[in-house]
């Protein structure tokens, strides 16, 4: 990234990629270079690179003439690498081209993934800043893509002996006219993967019914005791019709789109949750449904996912 000023001809900030996706996560070391071209000898008050992680939420309620605005901020870290320290005498840098290397270690621990939403965002930003006396600061910024997996926690209690999520059972009763059983392998998925679902329905009713599948995303924004919700349907699929007085097994696959937002469970002012909704569409009747919580994780998490699970459910 490049910025042009009057005295400073060019100010450029670049960082070194550590993988093909150019992403970073907890504990990584971010290295790079700041270059600039000075038109003349210049006295500099301070010169540094800053890396920080912040979360912000904001929304308003009310009518145009009277609105209440809710906002909150969370700071995860703020790190600086100095080329010329602050609070020192002006340092003169000669005319010409200059190059400065930097290295900043991202803190370990649980940090939320990057996020941009309608009412909030989580941003990790790298900034080079040069300050001069009686002059406006010169700076250049870059946003860092930060998909993290330390915020991923188990959705259910794992029974290690049999390898299933034993505390997740689902039952739906509607007039005792049909029985349906379904299975979904795993609860952790990465972008681009496929969610495979199988539904077995015994329809003893006098109505046809259609199994439908929907992958959904819920975002919750929080400011103290106030909350703002938004949801979206990521993808959906309609299964084959199950005729009255019949039995059928229906399978479907839903591919997670590349622009899907990762699950976030460790930010105090916003969260992102995903679930698979499976329901039976019945004309002129309430549609029975079941929701499976899913976790959308970075692809790096899928390389070493830990224990897997099988969700199953039955309704009658």
From TrEMBL:
GO cellular component term, pick one: plasma membrane
Membrane-spanning parts: 178-199
GO biological process: nervous system development; protein transport
UniProt-listed InterPro entries: Arrestin-like_C, Arrestin-like_N, Arrestin_C-like, Arrestin_domain-protein, Ig_E-set
Domain Arrestin C-terminal-like: 166-301
Keyword DNA-binding: no
Any one Pfam family match given in the protein's UniProt record, by short name: Arrestin_N
SUPFAM superfamilies, sorted: E set domains
Keywords: Membrane, Transmembrane, Transmembrane helix
Family of this protein: Belongs to the arrestin family.
Name by which UniProt lists this protein: Arrestin C-terminal-like domain-containing protein
Originating organism: Gadus morhua
